[in-house]
């Protein structure tokens, strides 16, 4: 092969190499551009998700705050807490009876001393006058409401009356039933009344003092819309 031909062959080989190298560089550049776009899209999606997460956190915080407010309005269970007392011009349930609104329900609280002797579930003779008035109001002003009578005690173990009751829960149930039966006798429809015993498990005051235990020994008549 003469010198000219060798030069032409070398030139052709160089040109082919340059073309291959050029194509490879172009592909790399195109791939880099595509990857850059994907990265930008991913970053944007991540930013959008973070924004959505912050919005959800704010909404959750607002919901939790409103829920706590609602719970505080509807009930205040636990030691030293209880339903918020309100003045009700009508109806009046009588002297010595506490009335409170808890949501849409009326809570009528009667202390143990009004209804029962210590450790017993037989209504006192004088308690019947109080319950007569309560029954009258229930029949007149709450004729379409359901009525739950709850018995509550303190945490002191049953001692003197242990032969009658297994424990405080047993005593609270029987006290609630005694009140329900009396209200039924006084015309309150049995179909809308029932009894529940909580024993010592829903205190409204501390059980560490005599005064607190006295508050916890009670019957609550819960009057709710049907």
List the total number of helices: 5
Shape: elongated
Q: How many domains, in number, for the residues?
A: 2
Strand content: 15-25%
Q: Give the termini distance in whole angstroms.
A: 112 Å
CATH class wording of the largest domain: Alpha Beta
SSE arrangement, N to C: HEEHHEHEHE
Describe what this molecule looks like in 3D:
By secondary structure, the protein is of the alpha+beta class. The protein has helices at 3-74, 112-115, 127-141, 168-185, 210-216; strands at 98-102, 105-111, 145-152, 193-199, 218-225. The chain has 2 domains: 1-74; 98-225, 2-Layer Sandwich (60s Ribosomal Protein L30, Chain: A). Strands 1-2-5-3-4 form a 5-stranded mixed beta sheet. The longest helix has 72 residues, at 3-74.
Keywords:
60s Ribosomal Protein L30, Chain: A; single chain; 5 strands; five-stranded mixed β-sheet; alpha+beta; elongated; 226 residues
List the helices and strands and how they pair.
Layout: H1 3-74, E1 98-102, E2 105-111, H2 112-115, H3 127-141, E3 145-152, H4 168-185, E4 193-199, H5 210-216, E5 218-225
Parallel strand pairs: 3-4
Antiparallel strand pairs: 1-2, 2-5, 3-5
Please outline what is shown here:
This protein is an alpha+beta fold and 226 residues long. Helix content is 51%, strand content 15%. The protein folds into two domains: 1-74; 98-225, OmpA-like domain (60s Ribosomal Protein L30, Chain: A).
């Amino acid at each position: 092969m003469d010198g000219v031909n060798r030069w032409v062959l070398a030139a052709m080989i160089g040109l082919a190499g340059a073309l291959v190298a050029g194509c490879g560089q172009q592909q790399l550049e195109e791939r880099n551009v595509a990857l850059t776009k994907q990265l930008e899209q991913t970053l944007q999606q991540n930013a959008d998700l973070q924004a959505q997460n912050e919005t959800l956190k704010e909404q959750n915080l607002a919901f939790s705050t409103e829920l706590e407010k609602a719970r505080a309005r509807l009930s205040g269970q636990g030691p030293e807490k209880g339903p918020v007392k309100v003045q009700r011009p009508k109806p009046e349930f009588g002297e010595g009876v506490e009335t409170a609104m808890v949501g849409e329900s009326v809570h009528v609280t009667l202390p143990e001393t009004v209804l029962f002797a210590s450790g017993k579930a037989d209504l006192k003779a004088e308690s019947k006058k109080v319950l007569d008035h309560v029954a009258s109001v229930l029949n007149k002003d709450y004729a379409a409401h359901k009525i739950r009578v709850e018995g509550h005690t303190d945490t002191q173990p049953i001692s003197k009356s242990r032969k009658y009751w297994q424990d405080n829960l047993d005593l609270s149930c029987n006290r609630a039933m005694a009140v329900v039966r009396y209200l039924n006798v006084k015309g309150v429809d049995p179909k809308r009344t029932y009894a529940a015993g909580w024993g010592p498990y829903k205190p409204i005051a501390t059980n560490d003092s005599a005064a607190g235990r006295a508050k916890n020994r009670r019957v609550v008549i819960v009057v709710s819309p049907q």
